[in-house]
């Protein structure tokens, strides 16, 4: 800062030297340090006000720039922004559409006789998450044909069809050959021994099973809970709070 002040002071002094006299950025100090308040009275020429303003403004600008640079250097490097989470590979329409029921046109039609309802017995989840878990068990892919989200990892009431539905393959959800081969497995995300399905889940499920029953001539009595068909031991699935009776009405 002393260097900057001396530099501009030298510039101002050089501007007022008599013609023919060389100026210096660093004038030698005079012995008499007492200066007259009036430069004219001391035999010098008064500084032009515009020049004085420019010099002061230049000093102020440099000081501000140096101060900003010092703050920036002290703050350290700017951290890189966190990468955006990649979009999910699974897509789910917000409203039930025919897209959910799309199947591979080359897949032979399957004789569906039942609809088997499940809960995930977990607070959160999605078709994609369950697909990964089922593959880790050694299964080909997601064991259910459809998953209905609860708003955690999959939209509330959003229906996702799994690979087994698209290719019209048997499920891996019922622990029963008959109900795996001919039963459409639908899983709702949630633990319905402790909670109840969300209103959006129930609306979506009602629309889905209505369409499936109509399309494949499945009766209301063939819409069952997993606990009604599982072999080799009992299960609470789809949970004591699951409203199976109400869903069957009107089918």
Structure description:
The chain has helices at residues 2-15, 49-75, 127-136, 163-166, 177-182, 199-216, 226-229, 244-248; strands at 114-119, 146-148, 159-161, 183-188, 223-225. With 251 residues, it is α/β, with parallel strands linked by helices. Strands 3-2-4-1-5 form a five-stranded mixed β-sheet.
Write a compact overview of the structure shown.
With 251 residues, the chain is of the alpha/beta class. The chain has helices at 2-15, 49-75, 127-136, 163-166, 177-182, 199-216, 226-229, 244-248; strands spanning 114-119, 146-148, 159-161, 183-188, 223-225.
N-to-C terminal Cα separation, in Å? 87 Å
Count of individual beta strands: 5
Please outline the major beta sheet: 5 strands, mixed
Mean pLDDT: 78
**Proportion in helices:** 25-40%
Biggest sheet strand order reads 3-2-4-1-5
Residue share in β-strands: 5-15%
Poorly predicted ranges = 13-42, 78-89
Structural class: alpha/beta
What form results from the Cα inertia axes? Answer: elongated
Tally the helices: what do you get? 8
What's the Cα radius of gyration?
Answer: 40 Å
Sequence of secondary-structure elements: HHEHEEHHEHEHH
SSE layout:
Elements: H1 2-15, H2 49-75, E1 114-119, H3 127-136, E2 146-148, E3 159-161, H4 163-166, H5 177-182, E4 183-188, H6 199-216, E5 223-225, H7 226-229, H8 244-248
